[in-house]
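Extended Data, record Prenylcysteine oxidase 1
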Amino acid sequence: MKRFVKDLGLSTVQSSGGLIGVSNGKTLVFEESSWFIINIIKLIWQYGFQPLRMHMWVEDVLDKFMRIYRYQSHDYAFSSVENLLHSLGGDDFLGMLNRTILETLQKAGFSEKFLDEMIVPINRLNYGQGTGINSFVGVVSLAGADSGLWAVEGGNKLVCSRLLQASRSNLISGSVMYIEEKTRTKQTGNPTKMYEIVYQTGSETRSDFYDIVLVATPLNRKMSNITFLNFDPPIEEFHQYYQQIVSTFIRGKLNSTIFSSRTLDEFGLTTVLTTDKSDLFINSIGIVSSVRENNNPQASTGGAFVWKIFSRETLTKEQILKLFVSYDYSVKQQWLAYPHYKPPEKCPSIILHDRLYYLNGIECAASAMEMSAIAAHNAALLAYHRWYEHTDMIDQEDLYEKLKTEL
């Protein structure tokens, strides 16, 4: 994403920060201070050196994962998600798909208290799940809780619209109904295999033919409803269950006493995460930050902010009134946000057919914008190399050592 932002001339906005607390439904089990040294003392007092060990482990995994950018800068591609991960971290990375983050961290000696109060709340915020997720997505989740987070000024959506504009592609707005391989005769008189895409746009049904097709949407019946006709062998069916998350935006005055005995004026937290043992009906709640530079969240008269709440179910009126002393409005968005992780994970194929590729299989390893960008780059390289039969650029072993030697 950073490369896209740079190439497109976009600007970034750093996270506005703020203080975070963790609630077990009865009290705040951890609460950040505005003083860095106080936070260090609190963490050591409650969890010893486990936070430091956790940080070092996450950094080690991320350092290995960063190799993908070097591989892709040299135009190497991978024919499966497993091959991609193995090239980055060997059997250790593949093993992470087959173990829960709970199993991995328990084996490493992390305490139940640390897992319940630090790891679970972060996972509930980022993936709506606890410690049952696979270890790889667990690392991605923990990395997302680190400092230094940023957004694209004006909104991350600008990356998509500007990439589309820069590519000079022809965007057709419609819903794909089915894909079928057919034989067509070229102007030279030679027959060739192509893919017919039948789609609906408005009240019309249309079709076009393509040499190469990349599918960039989860191929689940509840999400895409794309039918693959007359393929031999048939295209595999996808049964990955996606986790429902409800995002609710509320402009109101928080009832801070639901989290602590302090009044709102003395509360001071901008984000509250929750543990699995909490009887609260939310995963997290936090003040919405602006995507404009130097435009930090401001309270309206009366102390009302815009809050973003993640929950598994739609909030009832009674629940909203429990969270807020008063509120002006609420807006909700219910969506199937990411896979429900339950290791061992088997990632779908990238190559569905000869020249038919699938990007979203990488979500089974970890779902994130950056993962989707990597998957898209890999699929483009893979399609190119297979079209021109550059087999030496696909699934190469020991790339890390090979490229290091070339330097």
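Summary. The CA atoms of residues 210 and 379 lie 16 Å apart.
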